[in-house]
């Protein structure tokens, strides 16, 4: 069965406050979550009651980093991984979650907005702890999907309306998640392995349909 979570009041931590992490913070807050900690290349800030995301964004625009934001505690960037939270979103660098880091993390859900943020030695640790990890090839596939839609528009020779674009992107990502979740349920494997299995199946089907092999 699919994961059903009431996110209102739940805590979120975001590593990165750029083009992905910044807008995500606003989206999570508007959905009712408390964004309790944010880190970027300059530092990290923490407020267990929830950060004022709008004020933080204004501070970053002026100062160039979340560091020094006055309505929060200043913490080290490494502490971002151990802050009590329900959701952790790595939205900056790759290779930041290794085995030892995974042992200390408190989140029950990790959504990989960055490319390759979780090292291979961390996956079994997170699996043993019961942490659900939405892998990067699924979680941040919206950008590639949007690029495909732009290519499709160019091929057709006319632009799509904004609502059509947004709805198709939303539907595509929703269908992809449901397909991966279903595959994980059938195979009894984590979402990362399910995503790879589903991807390989689809590539094999496409190759067979094109007649590359007898």
How is the secondary structure organized here?
Blueprint: E1 11-15, H1 21-30, E2 34-40, E3 43-46, H2 53-63, E4 73-75, E5 87-90, H3 99-104, E6 109-111, H4 123-129, E7 132-134, H5 136-139, H6 142-156, H7 162-187, H8 191-209
Parallel strand pairs: 1-2, 1-5, 5-6, 6-7
Antiparallel strand pairs: 2-3, 3-4
Helix pairs in contact: 6-7, 7-8
Descriptive tags:
214 residues, alpha/beta, 8 helices, 46% helix, 14% strand
Describe the overall structure.
There is one protein chain. This protein has 214 residues and is α/β, with parallel strands linked by helices. The chain folds into two domains: 11-136, NAD(P)-binding Rossmann-like Domain (Rossmann fold, 3-Layer(aba) Sandwich), CATH 3.40.50; 142-209. The protein is 46% helix and 14% strand. It has helices spanning 21-30, 53-63, 99-104, 123-129, 136-139, 142-156, 162-187, 191-209, and strands spanning 11-15, 34-40, 43-46, 73-75, 87-90, 109-111, 132-134. The protein has a seven-stranded mixed sheet. β5, α3 and β6 form a beta-alpha-beta unit. α6 crosses α7 and α7 (162-187) packs across α8. The model has no long low-confidence stretch (mean pLDDT 92).
């Amino acid at each position: 069965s699919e994961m059903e979570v009431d996110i209102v009041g739940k805590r979120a931590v975001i590593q990165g406050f750029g083009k992905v992490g910044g807008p995500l913070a606003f989206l999570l807050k508007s959905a009712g979550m408390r964004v309790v900690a944010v880190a970027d290349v300059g530092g990290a800030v923490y407020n267990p009651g929830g950060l004022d995301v709008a004020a933080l964004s204004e501070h970053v625009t002026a100062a160039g980093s979340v560091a020094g934001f006055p309505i929060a505690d200043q913490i080290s960037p490494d502490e971002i991984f151990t802050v009590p939270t329900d959701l952790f979103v790595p939205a900056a660098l790759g290779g930041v979650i290794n085995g030892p880091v995974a042992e200390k993390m408190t989140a029950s859900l990790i959504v990989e907005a960055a490319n390759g943020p979780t090292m291979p030695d961390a996956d079994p640790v997170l699996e043993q702890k019961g942490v659900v990890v939405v892998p990067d090839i699924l979680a941040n596939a919206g950008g590639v999907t949007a690029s495909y839609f732009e290519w499709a528009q160019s091929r057709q020779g006319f632009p799509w309306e904004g609502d059509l674009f947004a709805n198709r992107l939303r539907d595509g990502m929703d269908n992809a998640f449901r397909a991966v979740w279903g595959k994980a349920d059938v195979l009894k494997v984590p979402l990362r392995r399910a995503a790879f299995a589903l991807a390989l199946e689809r590539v094999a089907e496409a190759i067979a349909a094109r007649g590359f092999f007898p």
